[in-house]
Each structure stands twice: as structure tokens, then as C-alpha cells.
Design the sequence.
């Protein structure tokens, strides 16, 4: 097996290394211009104006039911804008979507490798079967997320953290432009949460991916991402963490007297 | 067994209850059957031995499965290949008996071998109860038994194959409802005279179309509407049968199918339709699997999840629609659930799950047909009970393994 097959991601990501550490000054990938989102006559979010750039690391936060999922659907292209325009700056913008691990079906007798291979299906095209190359790519993706030993074990028997990593490997194996994570640390104990966030940080850093993370766990988000998008009360605010996460905004959002403290170099929202 | 605690056991319970009900209907002569008492069990058929049967037996058979088979399913031809001196006469008789309405022979012939029709035929069978040297598989040297075996293996194998998706996707109740819709289509064909398979495909398509609409929006869950579809389809089937020429006796045909009167063209049409289903599943296995397992992620990576889901439902519906006419609601429904659960209890990979399910679906068919022949039992119900026996064994094995 040639070396390029076992470690294919490294040459595949063109110039991302350079944009990796810039806080939002990479090439724009997706721009929302005066976008209104909603279902039928129900408008959820209005007047959205923002750009997502390669190398961004963005947390989408907000109370339950405020429209985080709606926004995510629009970004993924599953929900069209009711008005305004969503511009994709690359012809083929690919998303690596990581769903919530605990919502995955636990009946299917699928191994981790089977599931990671699904991330290759779109690249393979119709009527094609996974080749040895696809398999090698899938194994290498499992290695990158630190669980190569799980490849041939049953997904349904995994812990939450192991499932999360398998799903991340599936998202990575398609060599995406954007990594989208839906509540990646839900239902995890503190050790698993820590390990998962470290992994996401590392992926963002090493591969220069645009990472979008939906989470309601403010304390987790604010210590890892560069930018925060707050969705709540029909409003949308996006900016650097220290600009957006401050008492007034939080009070408006959650209607609670919240404070932002710095403890040992980490932000804590109380 | 814990993994499938959600739906499957409930549904298997429902199947078995229905079997019990159906058997009790059979044992209650006044209500269910036109023929009051069950005739003596058909003896093992030695006359079928190719050595003793004269070459003319092939000629004798030709009028029965011949010309009128497209419009009127033939009555069971129990005389085929039997005593050459008696066979021609009674075989012609049964053919002529079949004519007045296209529906009556189906209703008469479908029950089981326990109603072989005229006293003549019973006599023919008994006349042959003299010689020796019987192999159980001689039963399948009878043409109609061979067709029944072929059709049974075909539909039970396919139902077991697609049933893996039905169980994994937790759409067992959709499968049941589509089976009931298809059976209403067979009832429609008895009423209007259209081909039964056309009727069942039409009502199945109507079912898929109805179920793909979100009638209750966010307020009422879809399963309520699937339940409504099921019960209304059953009621419509009863009403259509009541008004059809064959009368309420045909209700049992819907439940148990017409496996013993399946014609060669039935088998051919079924094989063709199921062949299409097979090609589709073979070609698009990875898309179907991805969308079935994780529709959200599939959609995010660019697949039209709703479309693929719909195609999966259609292929399941098509299989059900073609199975219904042959083996009836009961066996279709059972083959859709019991073999897949058997397989999923025993296996840890998709590929082996499909393979074991298909095998577990097919094994009971020849056994059941044979038992139904020699022990005078309704074929479909026998197959269902045997299939459940396999599931029990699988359940015990999987218990001891964990």
C-alpha cells in the first residue's frame, strides 16, 4: 500500500494550513445577505448578514427553540432562504456533518468502519462500491480521531465518546470544507467532554477547517471557539467571544442575571 | 431479544393471534368453509412416481394450466400426474367447473388441500393410496405444488430480505399497513374483475402516496394515520368481498393467499417485478443504507433523503403487493418481520443479516407446504408457525451467547 493512500488527507487539503490560525480572515465560503429563515408563515430568523470564512471556529449558542437548528439547516443548504440570498463561494462546498451521537440508531449491525465509509459515498458516486482506497481512507480517519482499534467493532456497543469520534471520522473522510457539529458534548461526562473538545480544537488547528459547532453549553463553547453566533429572541449576533459573551447580551437572551468570570485563564458563565 | 423490544414482539404476537383466529375459523365448519367437514387427509401420492406414471401424464396436464389461466386462476388440480385412467376426466371437469365467474375458482381452491373440490377427486386421491416407496419430496413433483414452492420461496425470500430494512427502520407497522392495503387491492380485483396483482399494486401505491403526506402536521404523529390506513383498508376489503360474486368465503383467500392455485404466469410476473426490486437494491445498496441509517447526515452530504426513503418504501410496497396475491396477508406480513428478527438476533453484520434472513425466510416454505399437504393444514399458517419456531431457536441461541 503506497504511503499516499494511508495518509491521504494531508496533501488533499490545499493551503488550509495557512488560513488555519487566522481569526476569520480566510476566504469567505458562505455569505448570508439579508436572509430571512422560517417555515411557511412562521419566521424564525430575520435580517441575517454574515460570512463564514475558511479557518473560522464558530460556536452557535442560544436558548432551546431559538432557531439554532434552523440556522444550521440553512447553512447546510437543507432549508432555502425565504428572502435574501445565501451565497456559496465555492462551486462544490462540502459539509462534514456530525450528528448528535445519542440520536443514532442502535439497531443497525454496522461496524465503525462501515459508518466511516458512508462519508466516502458521495465522493464515490452512484453505482460504485467502496474500494481498497476508500477503506484505507476510512481507517486513516479513524486513526486521526484516535480510535483505530474500533474499526471492526459494532457501533451500537460504543460509549457516547466513541460514537462521537466515529461520527467525526465519517465527517472528515469526505475531506470537507466545513465541519459541522451538533451538540458534540451532549450527555457526556466531564472527561469525555474534555477529550472531545480537545479533538475538535486539534482538527481545527491542524486541518484549517471551518468548524461550526451548535451547543447550548455556553461554558464549553466560550473556551474553545474564536467567534460566537448567538441566536435568540428572533435576533442574531455574531462576533468575537469577548465581544459577544457579556452580561447584557446574556441577560437579554436568557432573562437571567448571568456573569462572565475569568478563572485560571478560562471563562466561566455563571 | 431486548434490542427489538420496541415493535417486533408485539407484531409477532399479533401475527400469532391472527393465526390462531384463522385456525379456529377453519375448525369451525359452519362459518368459514363451504365444505362442511374436512375430507380425509390426502394420502401420500405414489402415483406421481415418474416410473409408474405413463408418458401421457404430461398431455393430461396441458388443458388445466393452459388457456384460461390469465383470467381465471385454476382450481387446485389434485389429479395432475395421478392415475392416468381417471385423471383426464376429472381434470377436464374441474376446468369446466371453473368457468361461470372468474372469481369463484379462486375462492374454492385456495383454502388448502383439505378442500379438493368434487368427491371424484377425493376418490382419485384415495385410489392411489395403495402403493409404496414414498419420498416426502414426491409431493413437489406435482405441478401445482412445484409452482407453489417456487412462488412461496420467491416471495418469502424477498420479504425476508426487505424485512431487514423494515425492522431496522422501525417501520414494521408501515409494512403491515401496506400489506393490508395490498390485500384490499386483491379484494378490489375480486369485485371488479381486474387482475389481482394489478389491484394490489394500485392500492399499495395509493397507500405509499397517502402515507408520504404529513396529514397531522406537527400535532399528530404519522403512526396514527398509518393505523387508520390499516383499519380502513381491512374494512374496505371486507365490504368489497361482501359485494363480490364470490362472497365472504373469499376473505380467507385474502388472509392465506392462493399459493396452491398460483399459475405459471403469476410466478413469471412476480419474478419479473421482484427482479426489478433486486436490481434496484443491488445497484443502490450504499445509498439506501446511508439514508436508512442516518437520513440527516445523508441529506447534509447532498443526498435527497426523502426521495431515497420513498424509493425504499416503494420497493418494499412492490414486494408486498406481489406477495399478497400468492401467499396472503398473513404470510407476507410474517415473512417481513420474523426472519429479519431471527437474523438480527444471530448476526453482527448487515451482509450476514440479509443472508440469514433470506435463508430463515425460505426454509419454512418447503417444510410448511409439505406439512400442509400431508397433514391437511392451511399452507400459509403452517409456514408462519414454522418460521416462528426458527425465531424461538434463534432467540434461545442468542440468549446463551450473551
Sequence:
Amino acid at each position: 500500500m503506497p504511503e499516499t493512500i494511508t495518509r491521504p488527507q494531508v496533501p488533499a487539503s490545499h493551503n488550509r494550513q495557512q488560513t488555519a490560525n487566522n481569526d476569520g480572515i480566510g476566504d469567505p465560503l458562505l455569505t448570508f445577505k439579508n436572509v430571512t429563515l422560517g417555515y411557511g408563515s412562521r419566521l424564525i430568523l430575520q435580517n441575517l448578514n454574515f460570512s463564514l470564512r475558511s479557518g473560522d471556529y464558530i460556536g452557535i449558542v442560544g436558548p432551546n427553540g431559538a432557531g439554532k437548528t434552523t440556522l444550521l439547516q440553512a447553512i447546510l443548504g437543507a432549508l432555502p432562504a425565504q428572502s435574501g440570498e445565501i451565497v456559496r463561494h465555492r462551486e462544490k462546498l462540502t459539509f462534514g456533518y456530525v450528528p448528535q451521537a445519542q440520536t443514532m440508531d442502535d439497531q443497525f449491525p454496522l461496524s465503525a468502519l462501515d459508518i466511516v465509509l458512508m462519508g466516502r459515498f458521495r465522493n464515490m458516486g452512484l453505482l460504485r462500491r467502496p474500494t481498497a482506497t476508500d477503506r484505507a481512507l476510512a481507517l486513516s480517519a479513524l486513526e486521526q480521531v484516535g480510535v483505530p482499534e474500533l474499526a471492526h467493532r459494532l457501533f451500537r456497543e460504543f460509549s457516547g465518546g466513541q460514537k462521537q469520534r466515529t461520527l467525526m471520522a465519517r465527517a472528515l473522510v469526505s475531506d470537507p470544507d466545513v465541519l459541522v457539529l451538533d451538540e458534540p458534548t451532549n450527555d457526556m461526562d466531564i472527561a469525555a467532554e474534555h477529550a472531545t473538545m480537545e479533538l475538535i480544537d486539534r482538527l481545527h488547528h491542524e486541518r484549517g477547517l471551518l468548524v461550526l459547532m451548535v451547543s447550548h453549553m455556553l461554558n464549553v463553547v466560550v473556551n474553545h471557539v474564536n467567534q460566537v453566533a448567538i441566536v435568540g429572541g428572533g435576533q442574531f449576533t455574531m462576533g468575537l467571544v469577548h465581544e459577544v459573551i457579556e452580561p447584557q447580551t446574556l441577560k437579554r437572551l436568557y432573562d437571567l442575571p448571568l456573569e462572565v468570570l475569568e478563572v485560571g485563564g478560562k471563562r466561566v458563565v455563571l | 431479544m431486548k434490542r427489538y423490544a420496541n415493535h417486533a414482539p408485539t407484531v409477532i404476537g399479533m401475527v400469532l393471534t391472527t393465526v390462531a383466529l384463522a385456525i379456529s375459523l377453519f375448525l369451525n365448519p359452519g362459518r368459514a368453509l363451504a365444505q362442511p367437514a374436512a375430507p380425509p387427509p390426502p394420502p401420500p401420492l405414489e402415483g406421481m412416481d415418474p416410473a409408474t406414471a405413463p408418458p401421457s401424464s404430461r398431455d393430461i396436464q396441458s388443458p388445466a394450466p393452459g388457456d384460461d389461466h390469465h383470467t381465471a386462476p385454476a382450481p387446485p388440480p389434485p389429479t395432475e400426474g395421478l392415475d392416468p385412467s381417471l385423471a383426464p376426466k376429472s381434470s377436464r371437469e374441474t376446468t369446466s367447473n371453473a368457468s361461470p365467474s372468474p372469481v369463484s375458482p379462486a375462492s374454492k381452491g385456495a383454502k388448502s388441500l383439505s378442500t379438493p373440490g368434487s368427491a371424484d377427486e377425493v376418490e382419485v386421491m384415495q385410489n392411489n393410496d395403495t402403493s409404496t416407496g414414498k419420498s416426502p419430496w414426491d409431493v413437489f413433483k406435482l405441478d401445482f405444488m412445484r409452482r407453489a414452492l417456487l412462488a412461496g420461496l420467491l416471495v418469502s425470500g424477498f420479504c425476508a430480505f426487505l424485512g431487514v430494512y423494515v425492522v431496522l427502520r422501525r417501520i414494521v407497522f408501515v409494512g403491515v399497513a401496506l400489506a393490508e392495503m395490498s390485500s384490499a387491492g386483491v379484494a378490489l380485483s375480486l369485485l371488479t374483475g381486474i387482475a389481482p396483482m394489478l389491484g394490489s399494486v394500485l392500492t399499495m401505491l395509493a397507500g405509499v402516496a397517502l402515507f408520504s403526506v404529513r396529514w397531522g402536521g406537527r400535532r399528530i404523529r404519522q403512526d396514527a394515520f398509518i393505523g387508520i390506513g390499516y383499519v380502513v383498508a381491512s374494512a374496505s376489503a371486507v365490504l368489497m368481498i361482501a359485494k363480490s360474486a364470490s362472497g365472504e368465503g373469499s376473505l380467507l383467500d385474502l388472509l392465506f393467499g392462493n399459493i396452491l392455485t398460483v399459475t405459471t404466469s403469476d410466478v413469471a410476473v412476480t419474478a419479473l417485478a421482484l427482479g426489478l426490486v433486486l436490481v434496484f437494491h443491488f445497484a443502490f445498496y450504499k445509498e439506501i443504507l446511508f439514508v436508512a441509517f442516518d437520513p440527516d447526515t445523508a441529506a447534509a452530504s447532498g443526498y435527497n433523503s426523502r426521495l431515497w426513503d420513498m424509493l425504499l418504501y416503494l420497493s418494499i410496497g412492490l414486494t408486498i403487493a406481489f406477495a399478497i396475491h400468492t401467499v396472503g396477508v398473513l404470510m407476507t406480513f410474517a415473512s417481513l418481520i420474523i426472519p429479519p428478527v431471527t437474523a438480527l438476533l444471530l448476526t453482527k453484520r448487515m451482509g450476514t443479516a440479509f443472508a440469514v434472513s433470506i435463508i430463515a425466510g425460505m426454509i419454512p416454505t418447503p417444510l410448511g407446504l409439505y406439512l400442509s399437504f400431508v397433514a391437511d393444514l392451511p399452507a400459509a399458517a403452517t409456514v408462519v408457525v414454522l418460521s416462528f419456531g426458527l425465531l424461538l431457536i434463534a432467540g434461545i441461541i442468542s440468549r446463551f451467547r450473551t
User: Anything to note?
Assistant: Residues 12-27+141-401 of chain B form a domain with the ABC transporter involved in vitamin B12 uptake, BtuC fold (CATH 1.10.3470.10).
